[in-house]
Specification:
This is DUF4038 domain-containing protein. The chain is an alpha/beta fold. Helix content is 28%, strand content 20%. It has two domains: 15-343, TIM Barrel (Alpha-Beta Barrel), CATH 3.20.20.80; 352-444, Glycosyl hydrolase domain, family 39 (Immunoglobulin-like). The chain has helices at 2-16, 49-52, 55-67, 105-120, 149-162, 185-200, 217-220, 241-249, 273-276, 281-293, 304-307, 331-343, and strands at 22-24, 31-33, 38-39, 41-45, 72-78, 124-130, 169-174, 208-211, 229-231, 257-259, 298-301, 352-353, 370-374, 378-383, 389-392, 400-407, 412-413, 417-420, 424-427, 438-444. The strands form five sheets. Strands 12, 13, 14, 16, 17, 18 and 20 form a seven-stranded antiparallel β-sheet that branches. Strands 8-7-6-5-4-11 form a six-stranded parallel β-sheet. A three-stranded antiparallel β-sheet has the order 1-2-3, with no helix packed on it.
Length: 452
């Protein structure tokens, strides 16, 4: 009996000091588990997950994303679309009288349940405490505006204390808003970060970023609580994601960076359906490879029908095409596992962006861009539409290299051929066209990397 008591006491003591199971890597470029094992952030945007789905549907959604190889689900506690007054699937709202000092236990119990289900599946949740319209509505928000420095600090502390034993949370301050010039917004968001940090028991127990409309680095790069940068390239097909990644990548102090909200699948491009039509799934996939090869530590996929958990009979936003449950297996979503497969197939933590691999003029058109990344003994070169390109050999190790073509649409590679690792060589992908992107994989022939 005494032994069981001591064991229980020891276990509870560990829980009291539990910390997130993720941290920033020693070289400050990636996320890793506490033991140093690499963690690939492959996210999906499910902003209205807690607000719209019942428990059975939430489990269905999470299981699908786990099966596809997603590692992070991005969701918000206080949802964008009237999340303070429009009740969840069980008729519950977050607060009594929209007062953040009066949390409704029944609402947060539903959040608890989904977080626990995600954890059971091995999924992390990038948890936004609130959407930005609860701080300022801007032109399209619903609000109401309920937060100032004092109230948002208290709310953050409440959440931190509630989830201090939940190891699968990545905390995301902000919510699709840039701090306004001349306002107290920056300090309000800092107050939220402070509240969460104190609630969980210290900065080492919370992994945090900030979700803006542009880049978190603009306001918070040197803040101690900001562990990695996150930016939003938004929903236009022509955004030069590599430029934004490179901007954050060069900043000091060094911090990981990624695109946390790029072009969504089945969203009107630039929000103009009549002029631009719906997003091309090939453009959605391009964002992943172009950002990762430019130096991002991870990537977030999104679908217009899923983020809002659209169903017929419910008001849809930005011209949804079909219900969320019929959108789980769309073309670009089907290819996201292949992104992770490639990135985890070679030594992970020494990977750097390196455009010196591809000499000559490079296009700034995302459909024609050549983007390159490498480790010391391997390299990946992405041809956005299968166009030929040159490679400066001899940058990675080895007298000879094995060269193969990886197909981002199928996750399969063609048989490798051995080539001398000298001079400049021209490579022509197996096929060309808007829907024919390819990755050239170059491996030091003396290494025994697993076949893709």
């Amino acid at each position: 009996m005494r032994f069981r008591f001591l064991f229980a006491f020891f276990f509870l003591s560990l829980l009291a000091h539990a910390q997130t199971d993720l941290r920033v890597s020693d070289n400050k470029r990636f996320l890793v588990y506490q033991n140093g094992k690499p963690f690939f952030y492959l996210g999906d945007t499910a902003w209205e997950l807690f607000h719209r789905l019942n428990r059975a549907d939430a489990k269905k959604y999470l299981k699908n994303r786990k099966k596809k190889g997603f590692t992070v689900i991005q969701a918000v506690v206080l949802a964008e679309h009237d999340g303070l007054r429009d009740p969840n699937a069980y008729g519950q709202v977050p607060f009594q009288n929209t007062d953040p000092s009066q949390p409704n236990e029944a609402y947060f119990a539903h959040v608890d349940y989904i977080l626990k289900q995600a954890d059971r599946l091995g999924l992390h949740v990038a948890l936004l405490p609130t959407w930005g319209d609860k701080l300022h509505k801007d032109k399209w928000g619903i609000g109401p505006e309920i937060f100032n420095e004092k109230s948002i600090y208290a709310y953050g502390k409440y959440l931190g204390e509630r989830y201090k034993h939940r190891r699968n949370i990545i905390w995301v301050i902000g919510g699709d808003r840039n701090p306004r010039k001349g306002s107290a917004d920056v300090e309000v968001w800092r107050a939220l970060a402070k509240g969460v940090t104190e609630g969980v028991g210290g900065a080492d127990k919370a992994l945090m970023t900030f979700h803006p409309q542009t880049s978190s680095s603009t306001w918070f790069h040197t803040d101690d609580w900001l562990d990695f940068n996150l930016f939003q390239t938004g929903h236009c097909a022509d955004s030069k994601v590599w430029e934004q990644i490179s901007q954050d990548y060069r900043l000091a102090p060094v911090k990981p960076t990624m695109d946390g909200e790029p072009l969504y699948e089945e969203i009107p491009v630039c929000f103009d359906l009549k002029k631009n039509g719906y997003a091309d799934p090939n453009d959605v996939r391009r964002k992943a490879y172009q950002s990762l090869f430019a130096g991002a530590h991870g990537f977030t996929y999104g679908c217009n029908n899923i983020w809002q958990m659209y169903v017929p009979g419910r008001k849809g936003y930005i011209d949804p095409t079909k219900p969320w449950y019929e959108s789980l297996d769309l073309p670009a979503a089907q290819t996201m596992p292949y992104v992770r497969k490639l990135m985890e197939s070679r030594p992970y933590l020494d990977r750097i962006p390196d455009q010196t691999l591809v000499p000559g003029t490079n296009s700034n058109d995302p459909k024609k861009r050549i983007q390159a990344t490498r480790g010391s003994d391997y390299a990946f070169v992405y041809a956005s539409s299968g166009q030929p390109f040159q490679v400066q050999m001899g940058i990675i190790s080895g007298k000879e290299v094995k060269a193969s073509w990886y197909n981002p649409r199928t996750g399969k590679a063609q048989k490798a051929e051995t080539l001398p690792n000298t001079g400049v060589q021209t490579f022509t992908p197996p096929s060309q066209g808007n829907d024919q992107d390819w990755v050239l994989v170059l491996d030091d022939a003396s290494r025994s990397f697993r076949s893709l």
